Every structure is written in C-alpha cells, then in structure tokens.
Amino acid sequence: IWPLGGRRARILRGQAPRFVEVAFTPDGKWLASFSTEGVLRLWPLSPTVALEKRILVREEDAFWPTMAVGPEGRRILVVTRSDGRAVLAPLDGGAPQTLKRPQVPWLESPAISRDGRVGAAGARMPAGRTPVRPEGNLIAVWDLRSGDVRMLDPRPKENEKRCPSDPKMDNAVFDVEFTSDGRLLSAGWSGLRLWNLDDGSNTLLRPCTNASLFTYLGGSREDRYLLLELSDSQRTSILSFHDLRAGISRHVTSHGSTVSSVALDPKGEIAVTGSFDGLVRVGGVDDDEPHLLYGHALQVTGVAVSPDGQWIASGSNDGTIRLW
User: Fold this and answer.
1) Where on the phi/psi map is residue 167: left (φ > 0), alpha (ψ -120 to 50), or beta?
2) DSSP string across 76-89
3) DSSP 144
4) Which pLDDT tens digit goes with each residue over 97-144?
5) Cα–Cα distance between 302 and 272 in angstroms, integer?
6) What Rg, from alpha-carbon coordinates, does the chain have?
7) Which residues pair with 243 in a beta bridge?
8) What are the DSSP calls for 250-302, one per residue?
9) How far apart are CA 28 and CA 230, in angstroms?
10) What are φ and ψ of residue 169, in 5° steps?
C-alpha cells in the first residue's frame, strides 16, 4: 500500500556513481557528496537562500574514495584507494591542501578530530599485493596544521585474539572515528580498539569475529553508542549496536543481512542503514521493525543523519542522492 499524500524524498542529481558517499555539515546547511567520479560537491540545503552547489575537489582516478566532514565545520578530509592520496578541502571553497602520503597505496574511511587538529584513516595493502612493511597494515594519523603523518600499529597483542585472514590483509583497519576527548576508535580485523594518540597505546574493546570482512562505524554524538556493520565476502552482514560505557554489544537483526552503509542519529537511538537491495531502513536500535524508504534502484553506498536528527541523506550506485 503506497501513501497517496505527503512529500516524497528530494532527489539530487549530478554526483556520478559509483560508491556515492554523503555527509551533512555540522550546521546542517550543506550536504557533501563524493564518489569514484573524484568530485567532492557541496549541496545547499537552505530553502530560503539561493545558493549554487560548490565543487571543492577534483581527483582523477579516485577509486572508491571516502571522506569525513570535520566536526568543527571548516574542512573535509578526502582519501582515495587508488594511490593513498589525502586532501584537506576547506568548506569555503579555498585551495585544497595535499597531506603527506604514508608509505601505503590504500587509504579509507577517514575521520577528523572534534577540534579539527588531527585526521586519521585506515592504511593498508590491497588484497593480492605484497606488503611493503613487515608489520603489515597500519593507521595513518595526520597533524592537519603541518600535514605531517605518523603511523599506528593495530596488531593484536600476544594475549589477544587474532582473526584468520589473508596474510596481506592481516590487522586491516576499515574505519576510524574520533571521540570528543581526542581519542581514536578503530574497527577492522584487529577488532574494535580505543587509541590514546599521545603515546600510541590502545585498549581492545571488542575482538574481531571470524566472519567479518568489512567493518564500518556509525557513532552517536553523545560519545557513547556505535553501530557496527560486519560483512563477509558474500555480502552477508551482521549489524551490531555497541555501548561504549557499558562495554556491551547486541545484534540488530531487523535491518536484514544485506547492510552496506550505516549511521546513527545524534542521540544514538535510531539506526539508519542502506543495503545492497536499494532500500534505506530506519528503526530503533532496540531491534524495532524499521521503516522502509523506497526509491533507490541499486546499492545504497552511503547514509547520513542531519545534526538536528530530522533528515536522512542517502547516496546510491544508481547515481542519485535522496533527502528523506
């Protein structure tokens, strides 16, 4: 049964696929989008101001690029999997800053600290390539003022669980997020870890699982809740809700097993997921039956929730961005 009244999603066109990512700016006035097209765009969201969309970055051959909007609301960090490039783009349209490249050909899922001084990203070797470092895959951490980079080693300690994997993918980190006090969360085959960037030490919060291939984080702004998506090579996913304070995780099964992108609302109460079947699902983290948002024809590769918790943005391989 389809409702005959009410507004449909607003559709934004112009960001070429594939792997369209979306993110709101902290003030809620703009939506950023990035894809393998290599173009980083800002879309105006104000209904009262006639603003044109801006192009902040053009990266050629941007294979599976990813981005992070700075919580301070001034810059966007974009990285590419093609050659390990990292670029810091001002939201006001100023000249982008190219950061120092780590000795790794593959960067993904960046993050910027709350004060805008530090950036981070998973740094690893693509499957099938020979590692150039004996320690394997690492985490890149940039000083965003100087552009310098240093590396963190996520290898499990001797008494910690090590997940079986391709040796070239050992310890791979697939996503990072900053906490409000400047610490760093990392997720991947080295488990869910919390890092102290002052001395490079880390604490294992949750070990990896044997079935997990990719892990993505969707964090609440209350610095407490995380939504983790773990999937295997067959695109079968497990959605997990993690309470950082209590150290407790629980599975969220109502969003199905084909989740490809995740986000939490600012309070950490509502889960938003995009899936390989083109659906956006929105429901309570207590495993409530989600609302189904129809419209995308292909995989939903990025979802985001606005800072006021009123809007959802979704990007898809069908070449559209939808505002719900």
Assistant:
1) alpha
2) EEEE-TTT--EEEE
3) T
4) 888 888 776 788 899 998 899 999 988 765 555 544 545 678 999 999
5) 10
6) 19
7) 225, 248
8) EE--TT-S-EEEEEE-TTS-EEEEEETTS-EEEEETTTPPPEEE---SS-EEE
9) 29
10) -105, 5
Question: How big is the CA angle at 78 (ends 60 and 171), to the nearest 5 degrees?
Answer: 105
Reading the block at residue 229, the tokens are: 């998506």
**Contact assessment for residue 140 and residue 102, using Cβ atoms and an 8 Å cutoff:** yes
Query: Which tens digit of pLDDT belongs to each residue from 180-194?
Result: 888 898 888 788 888
Structure token digits, residue 51? 């603003």
20 and 11 Cβ atoms separated by less than 8 Å:
no
Structure tokens at 94: 């100023």
Beta-carbon contacts of 317 under 8 Å, excluding residues fewer than 6 positions away, are: 17, 18, 19, 20, 298, 299, 301
Whole-model pTM? 0.84
> To the nearest whole number, what is the mean pLDDT of the chain?
81
Return the bridge partners of 57, or none: 40
Label the pairing between strands 214-219 and 106-112. unpaired
Please give the structure tokens belonging to residue 232: 């295997």
Biggest distance spanned by C-alpha atoms of the chain: 61
- Look up residue 30 and give its two tokens: 């703009």
